[in-house]
C-alpha cells in the first residue's frame, strides 16, 4: 500500500510539473510579441547565463559537448531499462505510461529552458534597437566603397600575421584564444552595452563534426559558453570567436552578431583579430558586390595581395569538401529554426550585416 501511495504521489508531482511547463510554454507563445516582457525575460536570462559561463569556465571542456554526450548515454541506458521494466511488469500499460510521462516532463523542461535562455532574446531588443544604428537601402556605389575600404585593410594587415611556407595564415590557435581577452574593449567605447565580464571561449573536441554540419561555432545558452570550431581555417577563428562572444553579450540575431564580430575585430587593436575581421567583412561585402557588379568585384579581388588570395583559396577549399547532403540538411534545419524565432530572413539574414557595415561607415567614415 505504501509503495502504491508513493507511485501515485510521484505521478501527481510529475503531472503538476508537466502542466506547469505547458502553461509556461503557452504563455510564452502568447507574449513573445510583447517587447517589454521579452526584454525583461532576456535581461534576466543574460545575467543567469553570465553567471553560468563564469562557473563553467573552470572546466576546460565544452559543457555543450559534455551535455550532448551525457544525454546520448542517458538516452541509451534509459531505453534499455525501460524496455526491461516493461517486459517484466505485470501492469505494462502503467509502466509504459510512467516511462513516457517522464520523457514528456524532461522534454518540456528543456523546451522551457530554451524559451527563457535563448528564444526570448530573439524577440527582445537587439543590437539595432540598443545602438540606434539601422540598416538602410544602399546603392551599389556605397557597397563598393565599403568593400574597397576593407580591401585596403587587408592590404595593410596581411603582413602583420604569421604565415607558413605557402603564404597562408599560420597563427597559433592557442595564442588566438589567449588574445581574445581584451578584444571587446574598443567596441565597448562606442557601444557600452556590449561590455561584460570576460569568459574565455572554448575550442570544441568535435570540431571536425561541426565542419561537416556546416558550423564555425555555436553559443550554448544553457552554459553561457562560446564554443569554437578549431578545425576550420585558422584565419577565420578570431572572427568566429568575436561572433560567438557577441551572442554571449545578448546579441541573438545572426546578422547583428556578424556585424558586431567585424566591428569588434576592427576595434580590437590586435593585428590578428583585425586581419580576421577584415577578411570576414570582405567575404560578406564581396559576395554581395559580386551579385550586382562582377567587374567591380573583380577589380577589388585582383588588387588583393597574393597572401590574402592564398587565404581565400585555403578557406574555399576547406569548406568545399563539406558541401554534402548533410550540410545541406543542417542548413535547412537551422534556417527553419531562425524563421521560427522571428528571424524572417532565415540564413539569408547573414547577408544583411552588409547593410549594417554600410550604415556604420556612412555614420563614422571608418572602423
Output the helix-strand order: HHHHHHHHEHEEHHHHHHH
Strand content: under 5%
What's the structural domain tally? Answer: 2
Helix content: 55-70%
**Helical segment tally?**
16
Please list the strands of the largest sheet in the order they lie side by side. Answer: 1-3-2
Cα-based radius of gyration, to the nearest Å: 24 Å
Secondary-structure topology with pairs:
Layout: H1 2-31, H2 35-56, H3 63-88, H4 92-123, H5 127-131, H6 140-157, H7 173-178, H8 185-190, E1 202-203, H9 207-212, E2 217-220, E3 225-228, H10 237-248, H11 254-266, H12 271-292, H13 294-301, H14 306-320, H15 325-340, H16 353-364
Parallel strand pairs: 1-3
Antiparallel strand pairs: 2-3
Summarize the structure.
This protein is mainly alpha-helical. It has helices at 2-31, 35-56, 63-88, 92-123, 127-131, 140-157, 173-178, 185-190, 207-212, 237-248, 254-266, 271-292, 294-301, 306-320, 325-340, 353-364, and strands at residues 202-203, 217-220, 225-228. The protein folds into two domains: 2-123, no CATH class; 128-364, no CATH class.
Overview of the molecule:
- The protein has 367 residues and is mainly α.
- It folds into two domains: 122 residues, no CATH class; 237 residues, no CATH class.
- Helices cover 68% and strands 3% of the residues.
- It contains 16 helices and three strands.
- The chain has a three-stranded mixed β-sheet with strand order 1-3-2.
- A hairpin with a 4-residue loop joins strand 2 and strand 3.
- Helix 2 packs across helix 4, helix 6 runs parallel beside helix 13 and helix 11 crosses helix 16.
- The radius of gyration is 24 Å and the shape is globular.
- About 2% of the residues have low confidence.
